[in-house]
Design brief:
single chain, alpha/beta, eight-stranded mixed β-sheet, 8 strands, globular
Length: 246
């Protein structure tokens, strides 16, 4: 099974890291063992969102530099059984090369049902590193022109890197605001503009951001939970309809 998934976005602020965590929590609730890898070197945040900031002693760069074993750089979530985290380095000078990161992920991926890689926004060197070990990708966009254009650039770069199994997540979607702003006549136009097949439509819910910033992922939930449950099943190949409660 293609179990290594990179989650990317063309611009910051789309809620990509939140999608990574919510998808991971949905997968473990369905009995899967999941490793989250933060690849946003110098700007890591998954440890805060999972209330693990004080637990992290070693990161991915420590593992490949021999400062610790690979297993020592993997931390179990204290709030979510079967969810594990490997943190990104604090300093950008410790950013891993694509070749080294791929070797690292290849050596540990068989211990998990899924490996979810949180890529830095954009298509720079960090993105190339994050995508190197991936079998497939999710592109996270908001339904507005700059996000959509960034999503197209990400798709083209992924394809250039040899990743062709790519799906679209439209995040933070508010039906009334979408209609009021009028950037697109309907959702089909957004999807067509991204040139990517939709796999999830996530409603805007301010509670999601509050939950993440409090480090309470998995402990509290929101109206979007059904959407992420559906996304987790679709990723596993189940034919289930889109779930949207907005």
């Amino acid at each position: 099974m293609d179990n290594v998934i990179v989650v990317a976005s063309g611009k910051g602020g789309t809620g990509k890291s939140t999608v990574c965590i919510c998808l991971s929590v949905a997968l473990i609730k369905q009995g899967k063992r999941v490793l989250l890898i933060d690849c946003d070197c110098g700007m890591r945040g998954l440890d805060i969102m999972l209330d693990m900031e004080q637990d992290i002693l070693f990161d991915a760069s420590d593992a490949v530099c021999g400062n610790c074993s690979f297993s020592d750089a993997i931390y179990k979530s204290k709030n979510n059984d079967n969810l594990y985290l490997m943190a990104a380095p604090f300093d950008t000078e410790n950013e891993l090369s694509p070749e080294v990161f791929k070797e690292l992920v290849d050596s540990i991926k068989n211990d998990f049902d899924f490996v979810i890689i949180d890529s830095p926004a954009g298509i720079g060197t960090g993105f190339v590193t994050a995508a190197a070990p991936a079998d497939r990708a999710l592109i996270v966009v908001n339904a507005e022109p700059t996000g959509v254009r960034g999503g197209v650039k990400v798709r083209k770069k992924l394809e250039a890197l040899g990743i062709n199994n790519i799906r679209l997540v439209i995040n933070r979607f508010d039906t009334k605001m979408f209609t009021k702003l009028g950037f697109y006549k309907d959702l089909d136009e957004v999807i067509d503009a991204t040139q990517t097949r939709l796999i999830a439509l996530v409603p805007f819910d301010v509670r999601i951001s509050v939950i993440m910033q409090r480090g309470a992922a998995g402990l509290n939930w929101s109206s979007a939970s059904a959407v992420f449950d559906c996304l987790a099943r679709r990723i596993q190949g189940e034919r289930v309809p889109l779930a949207f409660r907005g």
